[in-house]
Design a protein that fits this description.
- Strands 21, 23, 24, 25, 26, 27, 28 and 29 form an eight-stranded mixed β-sheet that branches. A seven-stranded mixed β-sheet has the order 2-11-9-4-7-6-22.
- The protein is built from three helices and 29 strands.
- Helices cover 11% and strands 46% of the residues.
- The protein starts with a helix and ends in a 6-residue tail after the last strand.
- By secondary structure, the chain is mainly β.
- It has three domains: 143 residues, Immunoglobulin-like (Sandwich); 76 residues, Immunoglobulins (Immunoglobulin-like, Sandwich), CATH 2.60.40.10; 100 residues, Hypothetical Protein Tm1070, Chain: A, CATH 2.60.290.
């Protein structure tokens, strides 16, 4: 009888244990299923701005990333750089005029125009190969501006993505839904990178890469993503120099500088150029051409002129020697005018074509031929003064 009682108790124990195990397995399987089946995934363009800390006298590089890769054909994005309310206030201007801007795409095909160098800026872009937006490790765009030496530690600048000026088109020219996450810049720290030279092209093994900025010291280390650094040399608080052990394409590669106190700054290089004067056309003068990485020896454009609509031209020379450029305007095979332009080393310029060819000879139906004795970057500009837009136009290989 004792054995029967024990057997019954043991049986109930086993049964209860099995029930508990089955219940636990059911709960676990449901939780796993829920984990494997997250909520709806956003299908569109999701943009995010990295928060940064920049010292007085340093340089802001506003970095805009896509969080999921998606091919982009064309579009525009408005950005804003403005002082927000902070614990510490000062009448000093926190940021100076936007120095320049950059677009990055894996195929090197994206070109654009940044319109407006103060406060709000609109960036218009086009990517014929639709490689723009397909790399999440490099920002799709950056904007650079100097931080005033009079800026007060603790001041905050809003790095805003404007939802009212956000148009991103897929390869079929359909609009993507857009999610925007703005960021902030806080004035503080000591470390900043303002430039990397060379900022584009293939850097050969042993060639010197100069990194300029503020706050460098003898403990500063440099890391270049995907590159093998051979030597690092501290020159001064504003200059570091490194060499690589193998040839390396540097444009758009992440560079990190770190000090002994673990202060870190991240920078994405591009080649800065000297600007050849200023356009007399206000819209062109307030804009920054953003060139595709393709170079041309001969390119053709078809100007459009109609009321407030006008055509312009932007050229950039990244060669180690000057480029001699000839601009020829014609209509129906008849040459209307010819101009010669000399582009110095690492120089660029943009003009309304009416400035280049005065006398109202530029018009719809004319053809512009651009010839250079060095391969250069070239881009047409299609502007409209009534709307404040300035669109990038890619060169043609035929008239």
């Amino acid at each position: 009888m004792g054995q029967s009682f024990l057997a019954r108790k043991f049986g109930r124990f086993i049964a209860n244990s099995v029930s508990c195990i089955l219940a636990l397995m059911l709960v676990t399987s449901v939780a796993a299923a829920q984990a494997e089946s997250p909520g709806p995934v956003f299908v569109g363009i999701s943009l995010s701005v990295k928060d940064v800390t920049v010292p007085p006298g340093g340089t802001l590089q506003m970095q805009v990333f896509v969080t999921e890769p998606n091919p982009i054909l064309k579009g525009k994005q408005g950005v804003g750089l403005s002082k927000s309310l902070a614990a510490t206030h000062s009448p000093a201007l926190v940021l100076g005029t936007i120095r320049d801007a950059t677009l990055f795409s894996p195929g090197g095909d994206v070109s654009g125009v940044a319109v407006g160098k103060n406060g709000g800026t609109q960036i218009f872009f086009t990517s014929p190969l639709t490689s723009f937006g397909t790399d999440i490790d490099t920002p799709v765009m950056t904007i650079q501006a100097p931080v005033s030496t009079a800026a007060t530690v603790g001041q905050i600048v809003d790095l805003t993505l404007d939802p009212n000026n956000a148009l991103w088109y897929d390869p079929n020219s359909n609009l993507y839904p857009v999610e925007l996450k703005s960021g902030t810049m806080t004035v503080g720290g000591t470390l900043s990178v303002s430039d990397v030279n060379p900022g584009s092209g293939t850097v050969q093994a042993g060639a010197v890469i100069s990194i300029t900025g503020t706050g460098f010291d003898s403990s500063s280390t440099v890391d270049i993503n995907e590159a093998s650094i051979a030597t690092t040399k501290f020159i001064s608080s504003t200059l570091m120099q490194v060499t690589l052990s193998a040839p390396f394409e540097i444009r758009g590669k992440r560079i990190r500088v770190t000090n002994a106190n673990k202060e870190l700054v991240t920078y994405y290089p591009y080649q800065r150029t000297k600007t050849l004067g200023t356009s007399t056309h206000a819209l062109v003068a307030s804009s920054i051409p953003l060139f595709a990485q393709t170079t041309w020896s001969v390119g053709f454009f078809r100007p459009t002129v109609n009321g407030t609509i006008f055509s312009g031209l932007a050229l950039q020379n990244l060669n180690p020697v000057k480029a001699n450029v000839v601009l020829s305007l014609s209509k129906n095979g008849v040459v209307l005018g010819t101009q010669k332009v000399t582009l110095g080393v690492s120089s660029s310029g943009a003009r309304d074509l009416a400035e280049v060819f005065p006398g109202n000879i530029v018009g719809t139906g004319t053809s512009l031929k651009v010839s250079s004795d060095q391969p250069i970057q070239m881009m047409g500009l299609l502007g409209d003064d009534s709307t404040g837009t300035l669109l990038p136009i890619n060169p043609r290989s035929t008239p």
